[in-house]
Amino acid sequence: MSRLFASVRARATLAATLVVAVALVAAGTAVLLSLRSNLLGEAGTQAERSARDVATSLAVGTRYTELNLDDDDRPVQVVDEAGTLVAASEDLERITGTGVDAVTPQPSASPSDDGDDDDDSGESLEAGEIGEPTTVGDGTATVDGDTEDYRFVTVPVETRRGDQLTVYAGAPLSAEHGAVNTALTVMLIGFPLLLAVVAWVTWLVTRRALRPVEGIRREMAAITASEDLARRVPVPGTHDEVARLATTTNQTLAALESSVERQRRFVADASHELRSPIASLRTQLEVAAAHPELLDLDGAVEDTVRLQRLAADLLLLARLDAGERPADARVDLAALAREAAEGRTGVSVRGDAAVNVAGSRGQLGRVLANLLDNAQRHARSAVEVTVRRDGEAAVVAVADDGEGVPAADRERIFERFVRLDAARSRDDGGAGLGLAIARDVAVRHGGTLTVHDAPAGGALFELRLPGERA
């Protein structure tokens, strides 16, 4: 397969892989952040529960020395109002993140810890109060030689004797770290494998999708090499964009084949038409060179004029085929029709005073002249030209009282070099380009040229053009 399609496959595969990679990274990041957030929240809940348990014990009157703080997984600190550590978890060796670095409790002068059993006096005391927990943040703690990361929560508490204490408790983050690391490991291993599968599938699918395109390319290369425009590219049965591309390509080839065939026929017909006047003129000149007294000057002039007209017709057709756009001048069709009919015997013009259109005055004048020439050749006695408005359109009708045009030939007469009367002499019938030029000019002005039956029994040629916009 060619480098072009290999490059297309590579770009498609790379693009698909990059899109999936970005999506996977975004999704993986979201999953990791959500997982970490949930696990940190769970750790904070556990730390809060531990802190509340200790605070509850203190609130109901439990002494510092009687607190149960032997949970190795949750380091706890109890700090009095002066910031002195009064109780801590057993085997706590080091701690950071709570703001209190001390790990060894200090003696307290608090009445609740003076060694006297004041509660046996029978004195009625109010219950202690526990404040709202607050997340301090993350830190580390070393318990019995093991150092881990913790999330710490603080809970303020007021004992029954009015002591203001603060309880710091931590919950281990090992579960959070383990889950996040496991998920990250899975992603680092799974994502590359998934991207490889995506790239491989995209490569295969793209190759299969481009296979018909490669068939079209090969056939087009063969058509270019052989110059055989009758060949067509294969149309896949997938009914997708590639199938529509193949269909459009075949339509383009058909149009190109028709255009080339028309061009060849035009060149052949033009050569045939030019041969006769050139041969006649050459014969007359050769005779005149040998016998000056036999020179047919009128015939030579007539052949020269006919040759000049034919060359002008061919030049105009060549310009029209090249896509020459008509001028955008203001043209009065009524005045143009009267000008074209001037000096012609049996031709009458009637209609509106002024019927304006936008276009080329020279080309539209050529249309009217060709229509009048054709009508006069076939009319018995009279030709009538009518110029009128029909809604927003301008209409010029040229009618004769001749034999008319058979219904089967009403489109054929507009083909180039077509003369219905094969027995008619070339001098009387022309080269068969007048009506073809007239229709081409009409179409390029956004109009139409059609033929119908005239009221007098002859042919009625109707030129319809867009009227000039206000």
Describe the protein's topology.
Elements: H1 3-59, E1 76-79, E2 85-88, E3 92-96, E4 129-130, E5 134-143, E6 146-158, E7 164-172, H2 174-226, H3 241-290, H4 297-321, E8 329-332, H5 333-341, E9 347-351, E10 356-359, H6 361-378, E11 383-390, E12 393-400, H7 426-429, H8 434-444, E13 448-453, E14 459-466
Parallel strand pairs: 9-11
Antiparallel strand pairs: 1-2, 1-7, 3-5, 4-6, 5-6, 6-7, 8-10, 11-12, 12-14, 13-14
Helix pairs in contact: 1-2, 3-4, 4-8, 5-6, 6-8
Protein architecture, described:
The protein has helices at 3-59, 174-226, 241-290, 297-321, 333-341, 361-378, 426-429, 434-444; strands spanning 76-79, 85-88, 92-96, 129-130, 134-143, 146-158, 164-172, 329-332, 347-351, 356-359, 383-390, 393-400, 448-453, 459-466. The chain is of the alpha+beta class and 470 residues long. The chain has three domains: 1-109 and 126-212, no CATH class; 241-321, Signal transduction histidine kinase, dimerisation/phosphotransfer (DHp) domain (Helix Hairpins, Orthogonal Bundle); 329-466, 2-Layer Sandwich (Heat Shock Protein 90), CATH 3.30.565. Strands 1, 2, 3, 4, 5, 6 and 7 form a seven-stranded antiparallel β-sheet that branches. It is rod-shaped.
Structural class of the secondary elements?
Answer: alpha+beta
Number of domains: 3
User: For the report, how would you describe the main beta sheet?
Assistant: 7 strands, antiparallel
Order of helices and strands: HEEEEEEEHHHEHEEHEEHHEE
Distance between the termini: 59 Å
* Tally of helical segments: 8
Oligomer: single chain
Shape summary:
rod-shaped
Instruction: Count the beta strands.
Output: 14
Q: Mean pLDDT, nearest integer?
A: 83
Q: Assess the beta-strand content as a share of residues.
A: 15-25%
The helix fraction, in percent, is 40-55%
| CA-atom Rg in angstroms | 52 Å
